[in-house]
Amino acid sequence: MVIGASIAGLSAARVLSDFYARVTVFERDDLPGEPASRSAVPQDRHLHMLMARGATEFEGLFPGLLDDMVAAGVVKLENRPDCIYLGAAGHVLGTGHTLRDEFTAYVPSRPHLEWQLRRRVRDIKNVEILQRSVLEPRYEPARERVTGVLLDPPEPDADPEFVAADLVVDAAGRGTRLPVWLKQWGYQPAQEATVGIGVKYASHAFRMPDGLIQEKVVVNGASHDQSLGLGMLFYEDRTWVLTTFGVANIKPPQTFSEMLTLVDELLPDYFGKALAQAEPIGKPAFHAFPASKWRRYHKLERFPAGIIPFGDAVVSFNPTFGQGMTMTSLQAGHLRRALESAVGASSDAQLAREFNRATAKTTFPVWMMNAIGDVTFHHAKADPEPRWWRSAGNLFDQFLGAAETDPVLAEWFLRRFSLLDSLYMLPPARIFGRTVVHNMRLWLNEQRAQRRGGGAARRGGTVRDVRALQLP
Ligand SMILES: Cc1cc2nc3c(=O)[nH]c(=O)nc-3n(C[C@H](O)[C@H](O)[C@H](O)COP(=O)(O)OP(=O)(O)OC[C@H]3O[C@@H](n4cnc5c(N)ncnc54)[C@H](O)[C@@H]3O)c2cc1C
């Protein structure tokens, strides 16, 4: 049984269908028969990037998905870094060149991706998706396990309905009540790591004549000196979404014309010129995301059998990094492996333990790097916050500075940002050495230019300022 039919619930149901005779997904929200926004998933109106790694993982779960998306109009970027504008922490990555390694990305809207997954899950013979709200799981203390769920009654005066299950997957999202239930059942609370990032989103859909810009993915993250950022994606129905956001509780623009002013401020002129021809569609959407949250279930000594927390119910990342769906797709792999190794095992508490541990392993590197970025560049407060994080963030700033003008470094960043190759954002010795040499060369050029009197007199400054002296 699965609680929730969003990205996580659908992914979990797909995996469970290979192991159980019957899988039931309970979803409280209306599920549209076509790609459309849902009221229970308000974030789907905002920019949702599908990382290249996530596309591969979802294709593994649902073979044929990517071709079907492209057939439906979803943009596929095959070795087209010129279609991606990537600004991170105040540095614009120099990715507009031929890549050394193959790089393919897809740009579905969030409602489209969810619909593609939903219709595939609906087609699985032993899976049923029912529109019902789950009140709570039922726990049997004697067996220390969850035995099913109680459903909210369809009529206000009726009793909750019990439905038995061998396994309940909690994919109810960030707002899951599992922490409360665990307490009620006599378990220790899971430690919660948080990063208070105070992100506020404002998004607007729009149309624009084709061909005005070649980019299909535009990301300009916030930085230490600029708490506002934005992103733009070109979707399958030939509409665009423009999302503007503020970190540290800074309010983003509230109207389309204010959003365009921010585009002028943050992006090169040609974007503003193109967007001057944009026609807004509908009304703006707003969303607040106070803190990233990681519930560390893997640290609990005791965890009940018969229930597994999944997706955002375990960890919800700073959305401006665009990783949530991809990290959920990795959890689907963990669930499959945990189920495979649990076949024939004496205790199915082992299943949750194994899944929780594997999820922690993939969450850790991404969580840590996000947190380092957030405390260094986004004025965030993390709990816990190791002292070395800010120094690491400042070093990474040097790397990003070099990646503005070194295409090899830029490509390394693009791949890691897309969660390809490794989840660790730690530059290996080869990349680190290259960064140092590149920055030294930039610094020497700057010194020479200053001696010739051609460079602007500067105090301190970062290597990125040198770029203006370097590039035509
Ligand atoms: C503003 C914003 C922007 C984001 N941008 C990106 C991005 O660019 N890229 C990316 O990869 N990720 C992004 N994310 C994260 C992404 O949306 C989530 O990681 C992803 O949706 C997976 O979430 P989920 O399925 O676990 O939970 P959710 O999507 O929150 O879904 C939970 C589901 O459970 C249902 N449910 C809850 N309680 C019950 C109940 N009691 N009974 C029955 N059903 C129930 C809900 O109705 C809902 O359908 C963003 C998130 C936010 C907030």
From TrEMBL:
<dbReference type="Pfam" id="PF13450">
    <property type="entry name" value="NAD_binding_8"/>
</dbReference>
<protein>
    <recommendedName>
        <fullName>Oxidoreductase</fullName>
    </recommendedName>
</protein>
<dbReference type="InterPro" id="IPR036188">
    <property type="entry name" value="FAD/NAD-bd_sf"/>
</dbReference>
